[in-house]
Protein backbone atom coordinates (compact mmCIF):
# COMPACT_ATOMS: atom_id res chain seq x y z
CA UNK A 1 0.00 0.00 0.00
CA UNK A 2 1.22 3.55 -0.65
CA UNK A 3 1.29 5.49 2.61
CA UNK A 4 2.18 9.09 3.44
CA UNK A 5 2.87 10.21 7.00
CA UNK A 6 2.78 13.93 7.76
CA UNK A 7 5.00 14.81 10.73
CA UNK A 8 8.17 12.95 11.70
CA UNK A 9 7.88 13.29 15.47
CA UNK A 10 7.70 10.29 17.74
CA UNK A 11 4.44 8.90 16.50
CA UNK A 12 4.89 9.69 12.82
CA UNK A 13 8.39 8.33 12.55
CA UNK A 14 7.68 5.11 14.43
CA UNK A 15 4.39 4.48 12.62
CA UNK A 16 5.86 5.24 9.19
CA UNK A 17 8.85 3.01 9.82
CA UNK A 18 6.73 0.12 11.09
CA UNK A 19 4.34 0.38 8.12
CA UNK A 20 7.36 0.30 5.80
CA UNK A 21 8.67 -2.71 7.67
CA UNK A 22 5.47 -4.59 6.92
CA UNK A 23 6.07 -4.09 3.19
CA UNK A 24 4.28 -0.83 2.42
CA UNK A 25 5.75 2.01 0.41
CA UNK A 26 5.97 4.86 2.94
CA UNK A 27 6.89 8.51 2.47
CA UNK A 28 7.43 10.54 5.65
CA UNK A 29 6.91 14.28 5.30
CA UNK A 30 8.05 17.15 7.49
CA UNK A 31 8.29 20.90 6.96
CA UNK A 32 11.61 20.91 8.83
CA UNK A 33 14.17 20.54 6.03
CA UNK A 34 17.10 19.98 8.39
CA UNK A 35 15.25 17.10 10.04
CA UNK A 36 14.45 15.50 6.69
CA UNK A 37 18.09 15.84 5.58
CA UNK A 38 19.22 14.22 8.81
CA UNK A 39 16.73 11.37 8.41
CA UNK A 40 17.95 10.80 4.86
CA UNK A 41 21.46 10.44 6.27
CA UNK A 42 20.08 7.87 8.72
CA UNK A 43 20.26 10.19 11.72
CA UNK A 44 17.31 9.75 14.07
CA UNK A 45 16.25 12.88 15.98
CA UNK A 46 14.97 10.95 19.01
CA UNK A 47 16.34 8.18 21.17
CA UNK A 48 14.13 5.12 20.79
CA UNK A 49 15.53 1.60 21.14
CA UNK A 50 15.62 -0.26 17.81
CA UNK A 51 14.35 2.63 15.70
CA UNK A 52 17.61 3.56 14.03
CA UNK A 53 18.19 0.02 12.76
CA UNK A 54 14.62 -0.27 11.54
CA UNK A 55 14.77 3.07 9.69
CA UNK A 56 18.09 2.10 8.14
CA UNK A 57 16.84 -1.30 6.98
CA UNK A 58 13.65 0.01 5.39
CA UNK A 59 15.31 3.07 3.87
CA UNK A 60 17.95 0.82 2.31
CA UNK A 61 15.18 -1.38 0.89
CA UNK A 62 13.63 1.71 -0.70
CA UNK A 63 10.33 1.30 1.19
CA UNK A 64 10.88 4.30 3.47
CA UNK A 65 11.69 7.73 2.10
CA UNK A 66 11.71 11.25 3.54
CA UNK A 67 10.67 14.50 1.92
CA UNK A 68 9.59 18.07 2.61
CA UNK A 69 7.33 17.97 -0.45
CA UNK A 70 3.91 17.15 0.93
CA UNK A 71 2.04 17.35 -2.41
CA UNK A 72 4.27 14.66 -3.98
CA UNK A 73 3.75 12.32 -1.04
CA UNK A 74 0.00 12.87 -0.71
CA UNK A 75 -0.99 12.79 -4.38
CA UNK A 76 0.27 9.22 -4.78
CA UNK A 77 -0.86 7.87 -1.39
CA UNK A 78 -3.81 5.62 -0.65
CA UNK A 79 -3.60 6.39 3.07
CA UNK A 80 -2.32 9.66 4.57
CA UNK A 81 -1.58 9.87 8.29
CA UNK A 82 -1.62 13.19 10.11
CA UNK A 83 0.92 12.84 12.92
CA UNK A 84 1.82 16.44 13.67
CA UNK A 85 2.01 17.98 17.14
CA UNK A 86 -0.99 19.06 19.19
CA UNK A 87 0.63 21.28 21.83
CA UNK A 88 -1.19 22.49 24.89
CA UNK A 89 -2.94 25.81 24.31
CA UNK A 90 -2.97 28.60 26.91
CA UNK A 91 -6.25 27.38 28.39
CA UNK A 92 -5.14 23.72 28.61
CA UNK A 93 -7.00 22.66 25.48
CA UNK A 94 -5.18 20.98 22.59
CA UNK A 95 -3.99 23.43 19.94
CA UNK A 96 -5.14 22.09 16.57
CA UNK A 97 -3.49 24.62 14.29
CA UNK A 98 -0.90 22.18 12.93
CA UNK A 99 -3.44 19.41 12.38
CA UNK A 100 -5.79 21.71 10.49
CA UNK A 101 -2.96 23.25 8.45
CA UNK A 102 -1.89 19.72 7.49
CA UNK A 103 -5.50 18.93 6.53
CA UNK A 104 -5.63 21.93 4.17
CA UNK A 105 -2.30 21.03 2.63
CA UNK A 106 -3.51 17.46 2.14
CA UNK A 107 -6.77 18.71 0.62
CA UNK A 108 -4.87 20.68 -2.00
CA UNK A 109 -2.92 17.60 -3.07
CA UNK A 110 -5.40 14.72 -2.96
CA UNK A 111 -5.45 12.44 -6.00
CA UNK A 112 -7.91 9.55 -6.29
CA UNK A 113 -9.81 8.12 -3.29
CA UNK A 114 -7.70 8.58 -0.16
CA UNK A 115 -8.13 7.73 3.49
CA UNK A 116 -6.93 10.59 5.70
CA UNK A 117 -6.10 9.36 9.18
CA UNK A 118 -5.88 11.39 12.38
CA UNK A 119 -3.00 9.74 14.21
CA UNK A 120 -2.16 12.65 16.49
CA UNK A 121 -3.96 12.74 19.82
CA UNK A 122 -6.82 15.10 19.05
CA UNK A 123 -9.94 16.20 20.90
CA UNK A 124 -13.31 14.76 20.15
CA UNK A 125 -14.77 16.29 17.01
CA UNK A 126 -11.45 16.74 15.22
CA UNK A 127 -12.17 14.15 12.51
CA UNK A 128 -15.14 16.28 11.54
CA UNK A 129 -13.06 19.45 11.54
CA UNK A 130 -10.38 17.80 9.40
CA UNK A 131 -13.06 16.76 6.94
CA UNK A 132 -14.43 20.31 6.76
CA UNK A 133 -10.96 21.75 6.40
CA UNK A 134 -10.19 19.46 3.45
CA UNK A 135 -13.53 20.23 1.83
CA UNK A 136 -12.90 23.97 2.23
CA UNK A 137 -9.98 23.72 -0.20
CA UNK A 138 -11.10 20.68 -2.23
CA UNK A 139 -14.93 20.55 -2.39
CA UNK A 140 -14.94 17.63 -4.84
CA UNK A 141 -12.23 15.49 -3.31
CA UNK A 142 -12.88 11.77 -2.87
CA UNK A 143 -11.74 10.86 0.66
CA UNK A 144 -12.71 9.62 4.10
CA UNK A 145 -11.36 10.77 7.45
CA UNK A 146 -10.55 8.13 10.05
CA UNK A 147 -9.60 8.54 13.68
CA UNK A 148 -6.86 6.06 14.57
CA UNK A 149 -5.30 7.05 17.90
CA UNK A 150 -1.89 5.71 18.83
CA UNK A 151 -1.19 3.96 22.13
CA UNK A 152 2.56 3.38 21.89
CA UNK A 153 4.83 4.20 24.83
CA UNK A 154 8.16 5.94 24.41
CA UNK A 155 11.02 3.55 25.03
CA UNK A 156 8.91 0.59 23.87
CA UNK A 157 7.35 2.24 20.84
CA UNK A 158 8.32 -0.30 18.21
CA UNK A 159 7.14 -3.32 20.15
CA UNK A 160 3.93 -1.52 21.05
CA UNK A 161 3.32 -0.66 17.42
CA UNK A 162 4.16 -4.05 15.99
CA UNK A 163 2.25 -5.91 18.70
CA UNK A 164 -0.52 -3.63 19.94
CA UNK A 165 -3.05 -4.63 22.62
CA UNK A 166 -5.63 -3.20 20.25
CA UNK A 167 -5.98 -0.99 17.20
CA UNK A 168 -8.82 1.53 17.35
CA UNK A 169 -10.33 2.65 14.06
CA UNK A 170 -13.01 5.33 14.11
CA UNK A 171 -14.92 5.71 10.88
CA UNK A 172 -18.41 5.43 9.43
CA UNK A 173 -17.07 4.41 6.01
CA UNK A 174 -16.89 0.74 5.06
CA UNK A 175 -14.34 1.46 2.35
CA UNK A 176 -12.00 3.22 4.79
CA UNK A 177 -12.56 0.49 7.33
CA UNK A 178 -11.50 -2.23 4.88
CA UNK A 179 -8.38 -0.33 3.87
CA UNK A 180 -7.35 0.25 7.46
CA UNK A 181 -7.97 -3.39 8.36
CA UNK A 182 -5.71 -4.44 5.50
CA UNK A 183 -2.98 -2.00 6.51
CA UNK A 184 -3.02 -3.16 10.13
CA UNK A 185 -3.46 -6.88 9.43
CA UNK A 186 0.24 -7.72 9.97
CA UNK A 187 0.10 -6.22 13.49
CA UNK A 188 -3.26 -7.50 14.66
CA UNK A 189 -2.71 -11.18 14.07
CA UNK A 190 -1.66 -11.84 17.67
CA UNK A 191 -4.48 -10.10 19.54
CA UNK A 192 -6.98 -9.89 16.71
CA UNK A 193 -8.07 -6.75 18.46
CA UNK A 194 -9.04 -4.30 15.82
CA UNK A 195 -11.90 -2.27 17.18
CA UNK A 196 -14.12 -0.35 14.80
CA UNK A 197 -16.21 2.49 16.10
CA UNK A 198 -17.43 5.97 15.25
CA UNK A 199 -14.74 8.70 15.08
CA UNK A 200 -15.88 10.51 18.26
CA UNK A 201 -15.62 7.34 20.34
CA UNK A 202 -12.19 6.60 18.91
CA UNK A 203 -11.00 10.11 19.73
CA UNK A 204 -12.33 9.87 23.26
CA UNK A 205 -10.91 6.37 23.80
CA UNK A 206 -7.39 7.70 23.48
CA UNK A 207 -7.91 10.36 26.15
CA UNK A 208 -9.82 7.95 28.36
CA UNK A 209 -6.91 5.49 28.31
CA UNK A 210 -4.29 8.09 29.21
CA UNK A 211 -6.54 9.66 31.83
CA UNK A 212 -7.21 6.29 33.47
CA UNK A 213 -3.50 5.44 33.56
CA UNK A 214 -2.64 8.87 34.95
CA UNK A 215 -5.39 8.50 37.56
CA UNK A 216 -3.92 5.19 38.71
CA UNK A 217 -0.56 6.85 39.24
CA UNK A 218 -1.97 9.83 41.14
CA UNK A 219 -4.05 7.40 43.22
CA UNK A 220 -0.90 5.47 44.12
CA UNK A 221 1.01 8.66 44.87
CA UNK A 222 -1.64 9.70 47.37
CA UNK A 223 -1.75 6.17 48.76
CA UNK A 224 2.02 6.37 49.20
CA UNK A 225 1.65 9.55 51.23
CA UNK A 226 -0.82 7.77 53.47
CA UNK A 227 1.53 4.78 53.80
CA UNK A 228 4.22 7.10 55.13
CA UNK A 229 1.84 8.48 57.74
CA UNK A 230 0.56 5.16 59.01
CA UNK A 231 3.76 3.12 58.80
CA UNK A 232 2.87 0.96 55.80
CA UNK A 233 4.93 0.03 52.74
CA UNK A 234 3.30 1.09 49.49
CA UNK A 235 5.12 -1.66 47.65
CA UNK A 236 3.26 -4.30 49.63
CA UNK A 237 0.02 -2.44 49.10
CA UNK A 238 0.77 -2.23 45.37
CA UNK A 239 1.24 -5.97 45.09
CA UNK A 240 -1.77 -6.82 47.23
CA UNK A 241 -3.93 -4.41 45.28
CA UNK A 242 -2.70 -5.20 41.79
CA UNK A 243 -3.02 -8.94 42.29
CA UNK A 244 -6.76 -8.55 42.03
CA UNK A 245 -7.26 -9.50 38.39
CA UNK A 246 -9.86 -6.76 38.05
CA UNK A 247 -7.19 -4.21 38.93
CA UNK A 248 -3.96 -5.62 37.51
CA UNK A 249 -0.38 -4.78 38.37
CA UNK A 250 0.48 -2.25 35.65
CA UNK A 251 0.85 1.46 36.29
CA UNK A 252 0.65 1.23 40.05
CA UNK A 253 4.14 2.50 40.83
CA UNK A 254 4.22 5.65 42.90
CA UNK A 255 7.00 8.01 41.93
CA UNK A 256 8.13 11.61 41.60
CA UNK A 257 5.09 12.45 39.44
CA UNK A 258 4.28 11.46 35.89
CA UNK A 259 5.74 13.43 33.02
CA UNK A 260 6.15 13.08 29.28
CA UNK A 261 4.49 14.64 26.31
CA UNK A 262 1.18 12.88 26.84
CA UNK A 263 -0.30 12.36 30.31
CA UNK A 264 -0.07 15.94 31.63
CA UNK A 265 -1.18 17.48 28.34
CA UNK A 266 -3.90 14.94 27.65
CA UNK A 267 -5.60 15.11 31.04
CA UNK A 268 -5.74 18.88 30.72
CA UNK A 269 -7.13 18.64 27.20
CA UNK A 270 -9.79 16.15 28.32
CA UNK A 271 -10.67 18.34 31.28
CA UNK A 272 -11.04 21.22 28.89
CA UNK A 273 -13.26 19.21 26.51
CA UNK A 274 -15.50 18.36 29.45
CA UNK A 275 -15.67 22.00 30.49
CA UNK A 276 -16.53 23.12 26.96
CA UNK A 277 -19.42 20.67 27.17
CA UNK A 278 -20.65 22.04 30.47
CA UNK A 279 -19.16 19.30 32.66
CA UNK A 280 -16.75 19.61 35.53
CA UNK A 281 -14.59 16.49 35.28
CA UNK A 282 -13.57 16.83 38.91
CA UNK A 283 -11.52 13.68 39.11
CA UNK A 284 -9.21 14.79 36.29
CA UNK A 285 -8.56 18.12 37.96
CA UNK A 286 -7.46 16.21 41.07
CA UNK A 287 -5.26 13.83 39.09
CA UNK A 288 -3.42 16.84 37.68
CA UNK A 289 -3.16 18.68 41.02
CA UNK A 290 -1.89 15.61 42.86
CA UNK A 291 0.72 15.16 40.17
CA UNK A 292 1.91 18.77 40.33
CA UNK A 293 2.31 18.42 44.11
CA UNK A 294 4.07 15.11 43.67
CA UNK A 295 6.71 16.77 41.53
CA UNK A 296 7.69 18.83 44.62
CA UNK A 297 7.86 15.80 46.93
CA UNK A 298 11.56 14.92 46.59
CA UNK A 299 12.50 18.55 47.13
CA UNK A 300 10.24 18.74 50.18
CA UNK A 301 11.83 15.60 51.59
CA UNK A 302 15.28 17.10 51.18
CA UNK A 303 14.27 20.41 52.74
CA UNK A 304 12.85 18.54 55.72
CA UNK A 305 15.95 16.37 56.05
CA UNK A 306 18.33 19.32 56.01
CA UNK A 307 16.27 21.39 58.46
CA UNK A 308 15.04 23.83 55.84
CA UNK A 309 18.43 24.95 54.53
CA UNK A 310 19.86 23.63 51.27
CA UNK A 311 22.12 26.60 50.62
CA UNK A 312 25.68 25.56 49.81
CA UNK A 313 24.74 21.89 49.65
CA UNK A 314 25.71 19.77 46.68
CA UNK A 315 23.45 17.07 45.25
CA UNK A 316 23.74 14.24 42.76
CA UNK A 317 20.79 13.45 40.50
CA UNK A 318 20.43 10.10 38.78
CA UNK A 319 18.07 10.24 35.84
CA UNK A 320 16.81 13.31 33.97
CA UNK A 321 14.45 11.86 31.36
CA UNK A 322 10.78 11.49 32.36
CA UNK A 323 11.24 7.72 32.25
CA UNK A 324 13.93 5.21 31.22
CA UNK A 325 14.85 4.37 27.63
CA UNK A 326 14.18 7.83 26.31
CA UNK A 327 16.01 11.15 26.17
CA UNK A 328 12.69 13.00 26.40
CA UNK A 329 12.50 15.49 29.25
CA UNK A 330 9.13 17.01 28.52
CA UNK A 331 7.37 17.61 31.88
CA UNK A 332 10.02 15.48 33.57
CA UNK A 333 9.92 15.63 37.38
CA UNK A 334 13.69 16.18 37.30
CA UNK A 335 13.08 19.74 36.06
CA UNK A 336 11.12 21.15 39.04
CA UNK A 337 13.40 19.21 41.40
CA UNK A 338 16.61 20.65 39.96
CA UNK A 339 15.15 24.16 39.60
CA UNK A 340 14.02 23.92 43.22
CA UNK A 341 17.46 22.84 44.43
CA UNK A 342 19.19 25.61 42.48
CA UNK A 343 16.63 28.11 43.72
CA UNK A 344 17.49 27.16 47.30
CA UNK A 345 21.18 27.79 46.69
CA UNK A 346 22.33 24.20 46.18
CA UNK A 347 24.53 22.91 43.37
CA UNK A 348 23.73 19.86 41.24
CA UNK A 349 25.64 17.24 39.26
CA UNK A 350 23.50 14.92 37.15
CA UNK A 351 23.88 11.73 35.22
CA UNK A 352 21.47 10.24 32.69
CA UNK A 353 22.47 7.53 30.23
CA UNK A 354 21.02 9.36 27.20
CA UNK A 355 19.38 12.67 28.15
CA UNK A 356 22.36 15.00 28.66
CA UNK A 357 21.85 16.66 25.28
CA UNK A 358 18.20 17.41 26.04
CA UNK A 359 19.02 18.51 29.58
CA UNK A 360 21.72 20.93 28.44
CA UNK A 361 19.12 22.78 26.41
CA UNK A 362 17.13 23.28 29.62
CA UNK A 363 19.80 23.86 32.24
CA UNK A 364 22.77 25.05 30.17
CA UNK A 365 25.80 25.18 32.45
CA UNK A 366 23.75 25.78 35.60
CA UNK A 367 24.33 22.14 36.58
CA UNK A 368 27.16 19.70 35.98
CA UNK A 369 26.85 16.55 33.88
CA UNK A 370 28.92 13.48 34.61
CA UNK A 371 29.83 10.52 32.43
CA UNK A 372 29.01 7.98 35.12
CA UNK A 373 26.49 7.74 37.96
CA UNK A 374 29.40 7.73 40.41
CA UNK A 375 30.72 11.03 39.09
CA UNK A 376 27.43 12.68 40.03
CA UNK A 377 27.71 11.76 43.72
CA UNK A 378 31.30 12.90 44.35
CA UNK A 379 31.27 15.09 47.44
CA UNK A 380 27.45 15.11 47.46
CA UNK A 381 25.37 15.82 50.54
CA UNK A 382 22.63 13.68 49.03
CA UNK A 383 21.56 11.73 45.96
CA UNK A 384 18.20 11.90 44.21
CA UNK A 385 17.03 9.02 42.04
CA UNK A 386 14.51 10.41 39.57
CA UNK A 387 14.48 7.93 36.67
CA UNK A 388 14.65 4.18 37.20
CA UNK A 389 17.23 3.32 34.54
CA UNK A 390 18.34 -0.30 35.01
CA UNK A 391 21.94 0.72 35.43
CA UNK A 392 21.04 2.50 38.68
CA UNK A 393 19.63 -0.65 40.23
CA UNK A 394 22.79 -2.38 41.36
CA UNK A 395 25.45 0.17 42.21
CA UNK A 396 28.56 -0.56 44.25
CA UNK A 397 27.18 0.75 47.55
CA UNK A 398 30.55 0.95 49.31
CA UNK A 399 31.93 3.01 46.46
CA UNK A 400 28.87 5.23 46.59
CA UNK A 401 29.26 5.77 50.32
CA UNK A 402 32.94 6.47 49.92
CA UNK A 403 32.31 9.11 47.28
CA UNK A 404 29.45 10.94 48.98
CA UNK A 405 30.02 13.53 51.67
CA UNK A 406 27.01 12.09 53.46
CA UNK A 407 25.27 8.79 52.56
CA UNK A 408 21.80 10.21 52.03
CA UNK A 409 19.50 8.97 49.25
CA UNK A 410 16.09 10.30 48.22
CA UNK A 411 14.76 7.60 45.94
CA UNK A 412 11.84 8.74 43.80
CA UNK A 413 11.43 5.29 42.25
CA UNK A 414 11.74 2.93 45.22
CA UNK A 415 14.60 1.15 43.53
CA UNK A 416 16.14 -0.21 46.75
CA UNK A 417 14.94 -2.07 49.81
CA UNK A 418 14.75 0.36 52.76
CA UNK A 419 15.86 -2.14 55.43
CA UNK A 420 18.87 -3.26 53.43
CA UNK A 421 19.83 0.33 52.73
CA UNK A 422 19.79 1.08 56.45
CA UNK A 423 22.01 -1.99 57.03
CA UNK A 424 24.39 -0.66 54.40
CA UNK A 425 24.66 2.55 56.37
CA UNK A 426 22.54 4.88 54.24
CA UNK A 427 19.92 7.37 55.26
CA UNK A 428 17.36 6.26 52.71
CA UNK A 429 13.98 7.75 51.90
CA UNK A 430 11.77 6.23 49.25
CA UNK A 431 8.18 7.10 48.35
CA UNK A 432 5.48 5.68 50.59
CA UNK A 433 7.70 3.37 52.58
CA UNK A 434 6.71 4.19 56.09
CA UNK A 435 7.79 0.96 57.79
C1 LIG B 1 1.80 7.19 27.52
C2 LIG B 1 0.89 5.96 27.44
O1 LIG B 1 1.39 4.95 28.33
C3 LIG B 1 0.84 5.42 26.01
O2 LIG B 1 -0.08 4.33 25.95
C4 LIG B 1 0.36 6.53 25.08
O3 LIG B 1 0.33 6.12 23.74
C5 LIG B 1 1.31 7.72 25.21
O4 LIG B 1 1.33 8.16 26.57
C6 LIG B 1 0.80 8.79 24.30
O5 LIG B 1 -0.31 9.29 24.53
O6 LIG B 1 1.44 9.06 23.28
P1 LIG B 1 4.46 7.60 27.60
O7 LIG B 1 4.11 9.02 27.88
O8 LIG B 1 5.47 7.29 26.54
O9 LIG B 1 3.13 6.78 27.18
O10 LIG B 1 5.02 6.97 28.94
P2 LIG B 1 4.45 6.03 30.10
O11 LIG B 1 5.24 4.79 30.12
O12 LIG B 1 3.01 5.90 30.08
O13 LIG B 1 4.88 6.87 31.38
C7 LIG B 1 4.29 8.14 31.66
C8 LIG B 1 4.74 8.66 33.01
O14 LIG B 1 4.13 7.92 34.05
C9 LIG B 1 6.25 8.55 33.27
O15 LIG B 1 6.70 9.74 33.87
C10 LIG B 1 6.37 7.39 34.22
O16 LIG B 1 7.49 7.44 35.05
C11 LIG B 1 5.09 7.52 35.02
N1 LIG B 1 4.64 6.28 35.63
C12 LIG B 1 4.28 5.21 34.86
C13 LIG B 1 4.56 6.19 37.02
O17 LIG B 1 4.89 7.16 37.76
N2 LIG B 1 4.12 5.04 37.58
C14 LIG B 1 3.76 3.96 36.85
O18 LIG B 1 3.33 2.93 37.45
C15 LIG B 1 3.84 4.04 35.44
UniProtKB/TrEMBL annotation:
Residues involved in substrate binding: 151-154, 206, 251-255, 259, 323
Keywords (A to Z) from UniProt: NAD, Oxidoreductase
Pathway annotation from the record: Nucleotide-sugar biosynthesis; UDP-alpha-D-glucuronate biosynthesis; UDP-alpha-D-glucuronate from UDP-alpha-D-glucose: step 1/1
Binding residues annotated for NAD(+), in chain numbering: 30, 35, 86, 121, 154, 265, 330
SMART domains cross-referenced by the UniProt entry: UDPG_MGDP_dh_C
GO molecular function term, any single one: UDP-glucose 6-dehydrogenase activity
Residues forming the catalytic site: 262
Record EC number: 1.1.1.22
Domain annotation UDP-glucose/GDP-mannose dehydrogenase C-terminal: ranges: 316-418
One GO-annotated biological process of the protein: UDP-glucuronate biosynthetic process
Pfam hit, one: UDPG_MGDP_dh_N
Tagged with keyword Nucleotide-binding: no
Catalytic activity reported: UDP-alpha-D-glucose + 2 NAD(+) + H2O = UDP-alpha-D-glucuronate + 2 NADH + 3 H(+)
Function: Catalyzes the conversion of UDP-glucose into UDP-glucuronate, one of the precursors of teichuronic acid.
Family as reported in the entry's similarity comment: Belongs to the UDP-glucose/GDP-mannose dehydrogenase family.
NCBIfam families (UniProt xref): NDP-sugDHase
Name recorded for this polypeptide: UDP-glucose 6-dehydrogenase
Organism: Vulgatibacter incomptus
